[in-house]
Write a structure and sequence with these properties.
heterodimer, A: alpha/beta, 6-stranded parallel beta sheet, B: mainly alpha, 23 helices, 2 strands
Amino acid sequence: MRILIVGDGKVGYTLASELLREGHDITIIDQNEAVLRKTEDSLDVMCIHGNGANASTLVEAEVNRADILIAATASDEINMLCCLIGKKLGAKFTIARIRDPEYNDSLSMLQQELGINMTINPERATAQEISRILRYPFASNIEPFAKGRVELVEFLAREGDIICDRPLKELTSRHSDLPKVLYCAVEREGEVLIPGGEFAIHPGDRVHVAADIVTVTQFFRCIGRSARPIKQVMMLGGGRISYYLAKMIERMNMHVSLFEINPEKAKTLSEQLPHADVIEGDGTDQDLLEQENLAGMDAFIALSDRDEENLMTGLYARNQGVPKVIVKSNRYAYKDVISSLGLETQVSPRLITCNALLRYVRARVNARGTTVEKLYRLVDGKAEALEFIAREGDPYIGVPLKNLSVRKGALVAIILHQGKVIVPFGDDMISAGDNVVIISTASGISDLNEVIRR
Amino acid sequence: MNTRLIYRLLGAILLVEAAAMVPALLIALGYGDGDASAFLLTILLLVILGGLLRLCTKTDHTNLRAREGFLVVSLAWVLLSAFGALPFVFSGVIPNYVDALFEAVSGFTTTGATIMPIVEGQPHGIMFWRSFTHWIGGMGVLVLTLALLPQMSGRTSHLVRAESPGPTLSKIVPRMGDTAKILYLIYAVLTVINFVALLPTGMNAFDAAIHTLGTAGTGGFSNYAASVGHFASPWVDWITTFFMVVFGVNFAVYYKVISGGWREAIRCEELRWYLGIYAGVTLLTSLSVLTEYGNFPTALRYGAFQVASLMSTTGYSTTDFNLWPVAAKMLLILVMFTGSCAGSTSGGMKICRVGMMCKAGMREVRRTIQPRRVQVVRFEGKTVEEDTLHQVGVFMFMYGLLLILGTVLVSLGGRYDLETNLTAVLTCVSNVGPGLGAVGPTGSFAGYSAWTKVLLSFLMLAGRLEIFPMLAMLHPAMWRK
């Protein structure tokens, strides 16, 4: 597909490199020539210098032939204008990044009037992700599948966990009360492995398991990780993510303490968040943190603008015994290093935005012949979880899985049959209309038939 | 430095060269002049060497950084010429390797300067190969490799940037591999049209092929001593004139025409400068040779041909312009400097650089009058960054420096007069072909000493790759670990 990206920033660049890998033709527009030159050097894309809200620039980028226009510049207004003009000039599908909460209420009207097919708010999406993690504190990451009936949960295996150092197929016989979950993928030293029956989990592995939420909760209780539900949350930094997150988790009966150093911002926040304790002060100040009872918190979330500050205070909170620490980090390349320090849960707004956008692009590809319903990238894109709907007439329908051959490096993780979650074993089969979740280390799978053959 | 990847790419290029020799081999077999074995031997050598380079250097690492990209390009061109010279030696047509190397470099860089005193009666395969090197070298070997090998399309912009002429690289579609394919397709189609157009003039197919390849690559090798003048036909002259001008135009313009934007295409500023300069110089040249030919139409025929030939840096001739008055000769030297458009197959400094520098010059003049007036240089309707202007300025200075130093070095050999030596160097750096004096259209470079020929070969490569890749290859920092 021809995809036009306006704004060669963090999101624009990451998105371009991902989409390029999937075989799309990418054109990037930006006003900063130096940034474009760097992009042109490292990616095989067309770069056009100019303002994306300028019709002649868009014409030069052949917007009329673009299947998708993604506006991801720093300015909401330019993004909206860009989509409006792009749509008028013939772009088939437009996506705008709109992050200002001011526009939140009028969003649906804006979308309709300006011809924007979809909007994405990175801060809101990040807040949603964090709130999901807070709901299930045992996981370092959680992703719903099949309309939320299946959860894909990531956690860090620790020394002494009963699931460690034994072949997976022996686990259920040894521990009869251990619920059946599917071990989808294991990340070890930066490499992603799709485990078979002989596979043994080592301490330090990042394990991804899939099951419905009740089973997952039981599973974690069984291996001794049932953290009590989170009630007290402390946040560092009063940015937009904090605002959205506080709004969300207040509804989940969690109490929020929020540090903001800028007095005016703190005042505005306290007006917007009447139930939260907004504390005006430097959240990196240890005395202040202790004064506000850091050690008594169930969760500490570092969301300041500076990765370093987030990391340092996150480590301090971990040191003080806060059970759940989440840090925001924009430099995703350091994920492993930060993990090794004990901060296993990191969120990156850029990656979350990219994932969301990629999902929509793939959904557009869907309409052109592929059948991916949902896509979730695991471990920095080294593996993928894909959800498909099994179609009537495909050769694998009604055949027990043990009689089917599954592509190497791929795994049929979950079958959702008539609202019931099945963690499939050899005798299970796929019926037409089922949602099927595939875990794969190869990217670019576009159809279930590519994975399963008779 | 990712040496494995460099070896791998060079291996691919040698294989492409082997494939490029196949048409010449078939022609050699068809005519049976006894030069087929020379091609067979060279192809065998290329396949073995290229195959070994590829087989022995497996690498998953496909990141090509700027330094490696430029090194690959300059090494590739040196290797191509070194191996492209072998058929001349093996067949015995040019027994001396240095001479053969000069001929091959002159072919690949689309210069068309020759050291062969007699070109008539040579084996057909060899003559075809000599002209075919123009065709490949015109659009670029790496561009061809890129069009043929899709897996190379990772970080390849450095390769194409080093090889394609012009100050900035302009892709015509988002992917480099697709861009390369489209460029070669346009190139091939135009070449076929040129070939077909020549046939009704009574030329035989072989002559038409030789002269089409020479025109398309803006090279200028002919299989007759009198070049295009041999045919003594106004039709051949005008057709060749037309196509020499056509191949001097940026190929992106043709893509725009095809994709429906002809209005935008004719608005291209560089094209206007190009056609404007061509028309002006042709008129002046024709007028200055009016007395030689008696009537204006004949003067125009010779003038238009010669200006097109030297401006597009092809180097064909229909007459010995050495005998023209000094005004006409000076005009021809002028267009040898400018060359044609960026993104075409021609050499020279390129019109857009000349255009930008003229505008920058005007700005400086204006600045002395109104020092505080803020001015930007605009080209193709867009502001030219100061950075680009700076680069273009330095490029033009280096061009001049290369010309003068080259002339000094050639003159140290103590041969010929200033006119000959200066135009010999200019014709090599600009990839034109003939110069004036002893290296004029009826002369050859055979009289120069062996080391002068090596120097001129270097200058041709430097001119074709636009100076910096070749100079970078000689810089010690390039070879530091």
